[in-house]
Give the backbone structure.
Amino acid sequence: MNLHARVAAVAAIHLLGRRRLGWFKELEVDTPVEIWCETDGPGDDLRFVLANDVLV
């Protein structure tokens, strides 16, 4: 739970500042525009929508 909160907080700072995360080197644009927590999906419950409409 603590890890999820930290990752979401870091992503939120980048979202608010409209800055690249730099986590996905293969993507030219990895700026988050949406952050989803507790998505009821498989695996870890964090989902990011990036500026180029990529879901990670």
Summary: The mean pLDDT is 88.
